[in-house]
Input
Amino acid sequence: MERETSIFYRLRFFYVIVFIISLILLFRLWYVQVIMGETYAQEAKEIRTKTIREVAPRGLIFDRNGILLASNRPGLVVSVDPDIVDKNPEILRELSLVLEKNYYNLKQKISHEKGYIKGHVDIAIDIDKELAIYIMEHSDEFPGVLVKVVPFRYYPNKDIASHILGYIGQITLDELEQEKFKYGYHPGDLVGKSGVELYYENFISGQNGSKTVEIDPTGKIVRELGNIKPIPGNNIYLTIDINLQRKAEEVLKKQIEKVRKMQDEDTGEYYKAPGGAIVILDAKTNQILAMASHPSYDLNIFVGRISEEDWKELNDPKNNFPLNNRALMSYPPGSIYKIVTAVAGLGENLVEPYGKNYKCLGVWKEFGDKYEKYCWKKWGHGDINFIEGIQESCNVVFFEIGLALHDNSKYSGDAFYHYSKILGLDEPAGVDLPFESKGIIPNKKWKTEYFKDIPVLAKWYPGDTVNMAIGQGDILLSPIQIAQLYSVAANKGELMTPYISLKIVSPQKELVENTVRVVNNRKTVDKEIFETIEEGFILVTKKGTAKTAFQDFPLDKIPVAGKTGTAEVRGKQGYSWFACYAPVDDPEYIIVSMIEEAGSGGKSAAPIARELLEFIYEVESGHESEE
Output
């Protein structure tokens, strides 16, 4: 009996404990739901989810020998949450003092970008470490403000190869509509704007990551919900040799400065020589070994965001537009184009290479006294044959060939367009760089359309054909097109597309297929035609228009086939050209040099090629070209 009583009291005590616990739980539930329900609901609403972008490092860029041309370095960026800063203007006021930036400029920037960029807005780029530490240590004073580490582009060679490499900048709304940027890009992303950075953007950009976090009303991160790590871009190896590139830029700059001290013999004016370009190709593959354009600029000024002052400076006409890649721009070619006239004349059997069948008296009057045309040599070359005509760049010889093409060729006024097209000049060279000019090879159709509102100019005249014969008239070609043209000559009729991407390698060091580069190899005209023309080119450097530039150069060991050009431009001084390949028997290099408003190609452009050949073949020379 006593035992039963003991069990009964124990069970009753247990039930009492369970009852009390249940009462406590019910009371707590009532308190949470009824008394604190609104408070907790409000707090839940105020805790928000944010996605913070994590920028992927862009792929590295190397030269053909693995020398680094473009890399990444860590930089510190201050970003703000627009929602929090808009509600608390004092945050931005205090931050503007710390950053030493104008408050209203920051406010305007945030207002502009918050509708464009989802999430935090960057307001200070590449700040110093001490400033970043101060902001982080005083985070309570700066709710909604983040300091993050971002990979910044870095160009160790500064202004060397700037036009090849290109620069990056924030993507625009217009760019986001383009096919190139339709997939995987978002407002605020940094993308290539020129050069390799733009052309190979989709290969080297990488994939940005993101971090999803919960933040409280003050902007503090409560917890991290997820993290997608960024994937670095592919690395790209270029065909250029950075040492040759550096030398080319050095020689070009030096020669331009020298030309500015030279005077035009006719006017007495000093040459303006605002800029110039050099293209060097591997003659066997048409890989671009160097491509220089002057003036140049330091790519590192674009890192982060370029300042307004620097941007104005780059676009100020007094600085001769350093952003322009002159190697891809179109210019009147002058006598450098006479190679096309030679190909056309030989191709149509209108030329006898060796007979003394031309007479140059310095003036050409086939169209009458009213339409006289002149040779550059005022007193004339006398009796001269075709090969000598190339050697001396005699205009009269090529006037005669041009007139014969107009009168006797089945292509008549379109003869030059026909042969230019065969030689690849009716379209861009196709180099894997953006913004390459197509140039102009005029013909009857082009002239009719271009001058449709001026009937008297819309007709094609024999004089148009004759002008084209010496590279004048409306012809425009770029240095890269001329380099491709002289590569055809060096390879005796084989046309190859110049290119600058050697290989693309993934972060895992696997080869990536290059799906954007287009290489076109095809035959043009019979090699015998170029073998004949080459005889004249060899004489150009030995005793012709480039003789002075190549004086004392070891042409017996390193024979050079070349052609000078001086293009007349209305209202400007002559444009100076020189194109060559060497060694003649087994060409290894194609070199084209051009200087704007620099006069004679033999005096201004040819010395550039000579100095580069000396560098390439380690030829010691104390030669100074004629002033």
Notes: The longest strand covers residues 68-80. Residues 2-35 form the longest helix (34 residues). The chain has three domains: 2-46, 50-238, 242-297+325-616.
